[in-house]
Amino acid sequence: MSVNDTKLRIVEAIVELHEEVGPAATTVTAIAGRAGVQRLTVYRHFPDDRAMLGACSSHWNEHHPLPDPATWTGIADPRARLETALRGLYDYFRDGAPMLASILSDESEVPELAEVMTPLWEYMREVAGGLSAGWGVSGDAQRLVRSAVGHVLGFYTWRSLADEGLSNAEAVGLMVGLVADVAAEPRSVSSPA
Questions:
Q1: Looking at the domain 3-63, which fold is it?
Q2: Is pTM beyond 0.70 here?
Q3: pLDDT score of 71 more than 70
Q4: What is the pLDDT of residues 118-127, one digit of tens each?
Q5: Of 7, 77, 87, whose CA–CA distance to 44 is shortest?
Q6: Taking 70 as the threshold, does the pLDDT of residue 173 lie above it?
Q7: Separation between Cα atoms, residue 152 and residue 88, nearest integer Å
Q8: Distance CA 65, CA 23 (A)
Q9: For residues 90, 94, 99 and 105, what is the CA-based torsion angle, rounded to 10 degrees?
Q10: Any idea what DSSP says for residue 185?
Q11: With 60 as the cut, is the pLDDT of residue 155 above it?
Q12: How distant is the alpha carbon of residue 138 from its chain centre?
C-alpha cells in the first residue's frame, strides 16, 4: 500500500469519526483503528489536531462544496434571490447534516476548529449581506431584514424546520415569506423595560 493510500485511509477515518462522534470525542487510537494503522502512522501524517482538522475539512469540503453565490447574485428580485440561495443552502445542510451538527456542537470545545470554521462564517456573512440588499428598506428596518436573513440562513434554523417534518421546499417557502413579511412591515424593536 502506498503512502498516499495510507494517508487517504487515515483522512477518511478522521472524517467518519468526526461525523459520528465529533472532533472532541475523536481519539488518535480510534482513527488508527478505523484506518487499520498504528497510532504512530497517524502522527507521522498528521502531527497534531490542527493538521487532522485541516485534512478532514479539506476532504469533506471537496465532497460537499458550499453553494456558489454566482447562482443567485445576478437575480434582481430580492425574494427570488433569497429563494434560490436558500434552496442551495438547505440542500447543502440536508446533505451534510451529520457532519455539520457534530462540528457545530464541538466548536466551542475544540479551539482548533475556529481556524477551520472561519471560511464558513465569512461565507455566511457575505451571503447574508448580499441577500439583505434590495428589499426597499433602510435604517432600523434594514437592520431587521438583515437579522431575519441571518436567521433563515442558519443551519439550526433549517434543522428545526426539518425536525418539524418540513421538506426543503416548504422550509424555503416559509423562510422567504418570513423575510418578505419583515421587509413589508418593518417593526420597531424596543428593549424590555
A1: Arc Repressor Mutant, subunit A (1.10.10)
A2: yes
A3: yes
A4: 999 999 999 9
A5: 7
A6: yes
A7: 13
A8: 20
A9: 60
A10: S
A11: yes
A12: 29
